[in-house]
Amino acid sequence: MLDAAVLYGALPARVDHVDDHIPASPDDQLPAWIDRYLTAAHGGPGIDPITTGIRFGTELNYSIPELDPDRPFSAEPDFLVQRLEDSRRNHIPGRATLIGPATFLTLALTTDGTDPLERIEELVEVQCRILTHVAIAGSRWVQVDEPALSSPDSDQAAPSNNDEGLPERGRVSSTTPMRWD
Fold first, then answer.
1. What is the pLDDT of residue 158?
2. Number of CB atoms found within 10 A of residue 55's CB
3. Span 91-109, average pLDDT
4. Phi-psi region for residue 113, left (φ > 0), alpha (ψ -120 to 50) or beta?
5. In this structure, are residues 108 and 100 in contact, taking their beta carbons and an 8 Å threshold?
6. pTM for this entry
């Protein structure tokens, strides 16, 4: 979820002032935002880490995205695209995997107490921009994980299966894991 928060430009404002990573060597391929990412995950001097939680009947912890209504989502696909291009150069088939907008928002909290799902159209637009960058990078498949759409603890209605605005080339695979009780 923290990776998705970076991809969707949704790290909390409290890490904005953390300096960009400066490469230690020419081989250092860490993204500029890595120190903000780590500070969001673990905290830092005077900075609380993102809260973690457990959902969907698992025992796995995830970082709960914190959404500020005054901070719009933004597409930040550079690191993902770079990994896909590296894979292609090394003749390794790559497939981007994204947390879908319904799941991301279902698992998020807002700083003002509003329903995160009210921002689904905004996030879908951002995800379409990311998918365009991924398609341009040559990825033929993208996996969009949406466990919130099949979760028994979700009381949210599933968004319609509307692919309007998606890039015309390539394929999108949306997963909704089933829970077998």
1. 44
2. 18
3. 89
4. left
5. no
6. 0.78
28: left (phi over 0), alpha (psi -120 to 50) or beta: beta
Residue 31 has pLDDT above 60, yes or no: yes
What percent of the chain clears pLDDT 70, i.e. is strictly above it? 82
Identity at 11, one-letter amino acid code: L
Distances (CA, A) of 131 to 32, 39, 44, 83, 153: 21, 27, 33, 14, 29
First-residue to last-residue Cα distance in the chain:
26
pLDDT value at 164 more than 60 = no
Q: What angle do CA 3, 84, 80 make, to 5 degrees?
A: 25
Answer yes or no: is pLDDT of 1 > 60: yes
